[in-house]
Amino acid sequence: MASEEALIKTGAPKVAPTPRVSAKLHPEVLAAQSHDILSVLLLFRFVNALCIRTFFQPDEYFQALEPAWRVAFGENSGAWLTWEWQHQLRSSLHPAFFGALYFAAEKLMSSLQFFPQFQALILVALPKVVQSVFAAYADFCTWKLAERIYGQGSNAAWSAFWVAVFNPWLWYCSTRTFSNSVETTLTVVALYHWPWEMLGDAKEAKEDVLSSHDSVKGLRISLVSAAVAVVLRPTNLLIWLAILTLALSRLTLDGSSPLGRRSLVVLVREIAVCGLSVLTVSLVSDRLYYGFWTFPPYRFLHFNLSQSLAVFYGHMPWHYYLSQGVPLLTTTFLPFSLLGLVKQASPSTSRSTLQANTLRTLTFTVLTTVGSLSLISHKEVRFIYPLLPILHILAAPFVSSFFTAEDPVDSRGDTSPAASGRWGTRPSQSTTTLRHKFFLAHILSINILLATYLSVFHQPAPISVVHFLRTEFERVHPDRLHLHRDGSSGDDADPLFALFLTPCHSTPWRSHLVYPRLRARALTCEPPLHTKPGSPEREAYLDEADRFYHRDDAAFVSGSGPSKGTWGVGFLDREMWPRRRAVDAAADGGEEGVSEERAGEVPRYLVGFEGIEPVLTAFFQGEAAPGRALGVNLTRRWEAFNGLFNEDWRRRGKLVVWDTGAGRGDSEGD
Q1: Mind telling me which residue stretches traverse the membrane in this protein (predicted)?
Q2: How far is CA 400 from CA 156, 161, 333, 415, in A?
């Protein structure tokens, strides 16, 4: 009442007090609260998954859903396996999980005799809906870990919760089927169950850290989750090496280690048992998937380090994660995250030894992981994505202190600083009021607008175009809508339905096209596996997509066309529809002639960004066009907006589907 009367006297706007969780709350009430929060997060991320209508990066599909589709529907399913799967660089655990979901869903729907079109819709939506569960549980464990550190019901813990909910990166990426998304969930689950008590002071410890059944059980959950994360993404090992280094060496930590000889033996034993168990499961899964024994982490290191193939996909400056990575992850909460990294590592008398050591260890983990990954030439924001929950937790108390003010009042009626949240304690009752509301409203508005634009308006065309092609195929070929294809029927049994003249992997593939008899082809971008690092051959190497978009390729190889033409025309002339080199000898011994026939199929539809339209026109149309004999008459059948900007000039403008007029059958209806 005192604080409310003060607000009235000063003329400040009245804010309804928010009661803090009391230490007297029954454990069943706290369990019910956790259940409710998890339910809300599940619903929130489910809506999040359904709202994602845009394309981000091809790994979302080609490192997870394409191999999963092959697991579920076989070799003749039309799944596109990239070179990484052909050379055993990836663990099969991630696609095997989604493959099992595909298989079970298809069997269930077939038994219920669902229409093929409805089955296709379910199979397209299934992975992201399942991924929303992982995303929700990651948010939940972030909140629970914050409660372990700052206290149940503390403002800092709730700040970590709300920062995660309003983070645009999580809205944009957490429900996508990246292996990094699953890695992040596994990492924060492992961090939540990790026995942080081993970082405390031996003088304050009442018993051995790993002496109880519950502590050992939590350690096992943590180690299994961490081991799976490391198998999926070997770089995740950096996080756990950092945590174990400080836990065992006590460098920069306060107090003496509470780890006795017995607890140390238990720790080593569980690391060995859990690690070897996960490794065995992974090896067996890879044996079943690849058909022979292989160890993907070794293959990954061999190709990306000794063969330097990672640089083929991009070379970033050393400061990329500092200048772009962390800012993109944290967006408007960046100042609080940076403040957390600086302040949480410094000594503080207001925190318990355990709390201070835990926050210092998390800070050390972020800094060493970012520093180690900065030494690698190829960098992506997704590679430091598992650090985001840690950044939220480090930033949480500074977000709380900036945007809230509280007047803690204990059960005896006096104020107490204990509400700031010691390790494992529940704060006393207090009232909390918001402050800096104008600034908070702007931050939340920016985050919401950014999340909305990225999830709905930035590059939506690559998703919608495959939906158009699938529904068009359903209309044109209603008798070919089978998910399983007879192994005896080769690709030649069906005409080429679509040809994608886009940068490599610009759209999803079989996970969205679905039907194996919907034949499609796209430009490839295989790396130069046949060349040596640093060789002239590697420096001059151009993949198929690069050769099409090569601006210096302006000359036709042969024919009656002009000596100079639009870029890309030479590629279409030489590689996509090459001339048949059949020689027609004259009967009277005159000069030989070259046949004008061309090899290659003309698809029913051509797909590309509108910037290639002059290329297609120059190749197919006009009296001097090299491909005029193919009889293609281009008409725009479908087009879609693809965002306000794109850093890749090849992807700028609308995405267009051109009807070539080919592939028409008498039985087809239009």
Answers
A1: 237-253, 265-285, 318-339, 383-403, 438-457
A2: 5, 11, 12, 19
